[in-house]
Write a structure and sequence with these properties.
heterodimer; A: about 350 residues; Butyryl-CoA Dehydrogenase, subunit A, domain 3; B: about 375 residues; Butyryl-Coa Dehydrogenase, subunit A, domain 1; Butyryl-CoA Dehydrogenase, subunit A, domain 2; 3 domains; four-stranded mixed beta sheet
Chain lengths: ~350, ~375
C-alpha cells in the first residue's frame, strides 16, 4: 500500500498550485463571475500543457493518468478556476479514443476551449432532463465550438455554434452554461455507433464525474480552510469562536469527510489501471461523495461566518454556490446514487450476488 | 499510489478463512452472538495455537512479526465472520503496551502467557463517574509496603468475567492536576475483593461493572511509573482509535445488497424500488469511505508516519456513518426489519435489527465521537481546545 504522491505528481501539484495562487486569486474569479470563463487563465493552463495532459502521445498528448488530471482538477477547485479543464480533458480523451484524426483534437492541442460534452441523463426529474436531441444545457457551452453527445447508440459531434448555440445563460455557479440544439438529424457528424458509441460515452461520463469529484474535493478543502481560519480569528464572548464545540465539531466532521472524498477520488483514479472492474463504480461513488461533502463543507463554513458568510464581500459564498452548481451540472448527488446502486449491486442486470460491490472481496 | 494491502495480507485472508472454515461453525457463530461476551476460551486458544494472538508482536517476544496490513486483515476477517474477537483485540493492545511500557517482569511473566492463550486481559479505564474524562478516575490505589491497596469501581469492563486480569487505571495522587496522579496496574480478577457484575446491553453485548474492595496488588503488577499512567493509557487508546467498524459495515451492506436482489412473494425485488437503491448506494459509499480511512490509518502506522488525528477521524466517521445507515434502513424496510435472526420472516438474516441494536455504542466506546471531533478540530484544523 502506498497512498502518497510520487515526486512527479507532487511537482505537478506544486506547479499548478503556484500558478493559481498567482494568476487566480478570488479577485480574478469575481472579475469573471458573469462569463464564468477566463481566457487569460486558460492560456496559463495551456502553457503548462493542461489541455493535452490526458491525451495519448500519438496525438501530441502527455499521456498522463486520471490521477494526474485529478490532481490538477483539485487545484482548480481550490482556486475556483473559471476554465473548462474538465470538459476539454474528457472530450479530448473521448475523441482520441474513437477518432484520433479528428480535427477538433488539433484545436484542443492548440489551446482552444473547443469542445464540451453533453452529459447523458444528468437528471431524471420530469421537465429537467436534457437528453440529447433538443435543447441541452452544456457546461462551458458558452465558449465551445462543438459539443459531443450520445443519442440512443449514436455518438456524434454537433458543430456550428452560431446555429446550434441558442442562448448563453447566467447560473448559480458561473458554470458558463449555454443551451445547445443537439438535434442529431440536423447535420451532426457521427463519431461512432452501436455498443462502441455507448461504451465511449459511458467512459467519458465516468471520467468527467471522477474529475469533477476531484474538483469538488478542492472546493471542500478550501472552504474548510476559510471556515477554520475565520473560527480562529472571530472573537465572541471574549474568545475565538473556534473554541466552541458548536463551531468546531461541524468543521471537524467536514474535515473527516473531505479526507474521505480525497481518498475515494484517489482510489477511483488508481483503479482505472490497477482494478478496472471497479473503476466506473468508484468514479460514480467519488462524484457522489465529493458532491455531498463539498456542499456540506461550504455550507458549514458559510454558517461559521454568521451574517458575514451571506454577504457577497466574503469569499465563502463563492464556494457555497460553486459546490452546488458543479454537482448539479453532473446531475446532482441524489440522482447519482441511482447509478452507484446499479454499478454496486446489479451492474449487468444479472442480479448475481457475487458481483456485489465490484466482485469478491 | 497503490491501494492494495499487499500479498502478505492476501495470504492472511486465505489462512484466516481456512481457519474459520475449520474451527468456526454456523452454530459457533450463533452461540457467540447469543452469549455476547466477546470472548470464547476454546476458540481463543485455537487462535493462539496458530499464533494469531501474538501475530503483530515482534519475534523477540515470540510474536509473528506481522505487519499492520496483516493484522488489519486478521481482525477484518474475524469480525465479518461474527467471531467473538473482543478478547483478542484487547490482548493485542495489552501485549503491545506491556512490551513498550512494561517491566522485564511483565515481559517475561505476562507476555508469553498472553501469546499462548493462557491468560487474557480486560480494559479497566471507565468508572461510574468518569467516561470521556478518563483522567477523572477515582478508583484509589494506596501504597502499603511493597503492595498497593485498591478501592473503587470500574464500569464497562467487557470480558472481565472471562479474563484473568484487568488492565486497570487508578488514582495514586490527588495533589496535582487529574492526569498527573494516575497509575496502571494489572489486577487479577480472582484476587480477594474483586467482584465482577454483569451489565447487559441493548446490542446483546455483555459487559461488566467491577467492584474493588481492599484489593491487594504487589508493586510488580504496576505498569509504568507511579503517577505517570496517563501516557500509558494514551498509548493504549491510540491503538484502539485507529480501527473503526468498516468491517461489520461492509458485512451489513453485503447482506442488505443480497437481500435487495431477492424477489419477494409479489415477484418484486426490493432493489426495484428507487428508495432502496438510494439507501444501498449511500450505505455502500459510507462503507467504502470508512474502509479507506481505516486503510490510511494502517498505512501511516505501517510507514511509521505521524498519525495525527487520523485514527480519531477513522473511528469518528465509521461510528457515525454506520449508525446513521442502520437507522435509515430500519425506517425504510418496515415491520419485517424488526425481527432478529431466527424469527419467522426476519429480513437479511436479522441484520437490520442487529445493526440497529448494536451501532449506537459505536459512537461511544473507545472514545466518544464528541471527544474525537474535538481532537480532529485541534490537531487537523488548529482550532482552540474545546470542551
Amino acid at each position: 500500500m502506498d497512498l502518497s504522491l510520487d515526486e512527479s505528481q507532487q511537482i505537478l501539484v506544486d506547479t499548478f498550485s503556484e500558478m493559481l495562487e498567482k494568476e487566480c486569486p478570488t479577485t480574478h474569479v469575481r472579475e469573471h463571475e458573469e462569463v464564468g470563463f477566463s481566457p487569460t487563465l486558460w492560456s496559463q493552463y495551456c502553457e503548462l500543457g493542461a489541455q493535452v495532459m490526458g491525451l495519448p502521445e500519438s496525438v501530441e498528448g502527455l499521456d498522463m493518468s486520471l490521477l494526474e488530471l485529478g490532481l490538477v482538477a483539485t487545484q482548480s477547485g481550490l482556486a475556483l478556476a473559471p476554465v473548462p479543464f474538465l470538459e476539454v480533458a474528457t472530450a479530448g480523451r473521448l475523441l482520441a479514443a474513437v477518432n484520433p484524426e479528428d480535427p477538433l483534437l488539433g484545436a484542443i492541442v492548440a489551446g482552444q476551449p473547443a469542445v464540451s460534452l453533453a452529459l447523458p441523463r444528468p437528471h431524471a426529474i420530469s421537465g429537467t432532463a436534457s437528453a440529447a436531441g433538443g435543447r441541452v444545457l452544456v457546461p462551458f457551452g458558452t465558449v465551445a465550438d462543438a459539443v459531443i453527445a450520445l443519442d440512443g447508440d449514436t455518438l456524434y459531434v454537433a458543430e456550428g455554434a452560431d446555429k446550434r448555440r441558442t442562448a448563453r445563460v447566467q447560473d448559480l455557479g458561473s458554470s458558463a452554461l449555454a443551451h445547445w440544439d443537439l438535434d442529431l438529424s440536423d447535420g451532426a457528424r457521427v463519431l461512432a455507433t452501436g455498443p462502441e458509441a455507448q461504451r465511449a460515452m459511458t467512459r467519458a461520463t465516468a471520467e468527467w464525474k471522477l474529475l469533477a469529484g476531484f474538483w469538488l474535493t478542492g472546493i471542500a478543502r478550501r472552504a474548510l480552510t476559510i471556515g477554520a481560519d475565520y473560527a480562529k480569528e472571530r472573537v465572541q464572548f471574549g474568545v475565538p469562536i473556534g473554541g466552541f464545540q458548536a463551531i468546531a465539531h461541524p468543521l471537524a466532521e467536514c474535515s473527516i469527510r473531505t479526507d474521505g472524498a480525497e481518498l475515494l477520488c484517489h482510489e477511483a483514479a488508481w483503479a482505472d489501471e490497477a482494478d478496472p472492474a471497479r473503476f466506473e463504480m468508484l468514479a460514480s461513488m467519488a462524484f457522489t461523495w465529493a458532491s455531498q461533502t463539498a456542499i456540506r463543507t461550504a455550507d458549514t463554513s458559510l454558517h461559521t461566518h454568521g451574517g458575514y458568510g451571506f454577504s457577497t464581500e466574503y469569499d465563502i459564498q463563492l464556494f457555497y454556490r460553486r459546490a452546488r452548481a458543479l454537482s448539479s451540472v453532473g446531475g446532482g448527488a441524489q440522482e447519482e446514487l441511482q447509478t452507484v446502486a446499479q454499478l454496486c449491486f446489479d451492474p449487468d442486470g444479472s442480479c448475481e450476488a457475487d458481483s456485489l460491490l465490484g466482485g469478491p472481496r | 499510489m497503490d491501494f492494495r494491502l499487499g500479498a502478505k495480507a492476501e495470504e492472511v485472508k486465505r489462512e484466516i478463512r481456512a481457519f474459520l472454515a475449520e474451527n468456526f461453525s454456523e452454530a459457533d457463530r450463533k452461540a457467540a452472538a447469543e452469549d455476547g461476551g466477546g470472548h470464547d476460551w476454546a476458540l481463543y486458544r485455537k487462535l493462539a495455537a496458530n499464533g494469531w494472538v501474538s501475530a503483530g508482536w515482534p519475534k523477540e517476544y515470540g510474536g509473528g512479526d506481522r505487519d499492520p496490513y496483516e493484522i488489519l486483515t486478521l481482525y477484518w476477517e474475524l469480525c465479518k465472520a461474527g467471531f467473538p474477537w473482543i478478547g483478542l483485540l484487547n490482548n493485542g493492545f495489552i501485549g503491545h503496551t506491556l512490551m513498550a511500557m512494561g517491566t522485564d517482569f511483565h515481559r517475561e511473566e505476562f507476555v508469553p502467557k498472553i501469546a499462548s492463550g493462557e491468560i487474557a486481559f480486560a480494559l479497566g479505564y471507565s468508572e461510574p463517574g468518569s467516561g470521556s474524562d478518563v483522567a477523572g478516575a477515582r478508583t484509589m490505589a494506596t501504597r502499603d509496603g511493597d503492595d498497593w491497596i485498591i478501592d473503587g469501581q470500574k464500569m464497562w469492563t467487557t470480558t472481565a468475567h472471562t479474563a484473568q486480569y484487568i488492565f486497570m487505571l487508578t488514582r495514586t495522587s490527588t495533589q496535582d492536576r487529574p492526569h498527573r496522579g494516575l497509575t496502571l496496574f494489572l489486577v487479577p480478577t480472582d484476587a480477594e475483593g474483586v467482584d465482577v457484575q454483569a451489565i447487559h446491553t441493548m446490542g446483546g453485548e455483555r459487559s461488566n461493572g467491577v467492584y474493588l474492595t481492599q484489593v491487594r496488588i504487589p508493586d510488580s503488577h504496576r505498569v509504568g511509573e507511579v503517577d505517570k499512567g496517563w501516557s500509558v493509557v494514551r498509548f493504549a487508546l491510540g491503538l484502539e482509535q485507529a480501527m473503526g467498524y468498516s468491517d461489520i459495515h461492509e458485512r451489513f451492506i453485503e447482506n442488505a445488497g443480497r437481500w435487495s436482489l431477492q424477489s419477494g412473494a409479489d415477484g418484486q425485488r426490493p432493489f426495484d424500488d428507487g428508495r432502496v437503491r438510494e439507501q444501498l448506494a449511500q450505505t455502500a459509499i459510507h462503507a467504502e469511505v470508512s474502509r479507506l480511512l481505516r486503510h490510511r490509518s494502517t498505512w501511516l502506522a505501517a510507514e511509521g508516519m505521524e498519525l495525527g488525528a487520523k485514527g480519531a477521524m477513522t473511528k469518528s466517521f465509521s461510528g457515525t456513518a454506520y449508525l446513521e445507515d442502520a437507522q435509515r434502513w430500519m425506517d425504510l424496510v418496515g415491520p419485517a426489519g424488526l425481527m432478529k435472526e431466527g424469527e419467522d420472516g426476519a429480513l437479511a438474516e436479522g441484520n437490520f435489527d442487529e445493526a440497529f441494536r448494536q451501532t449506537p455504542v459505536n459512537t461511544i466506546y473507545g472514545g466518544t465521537v464528541e471527544i474525537l471531533r474535538s481532537l480532529v478540530a485541534e490537531v487537523e484544523l488548529g482550532l482552540p481546545k474545546s470542551r
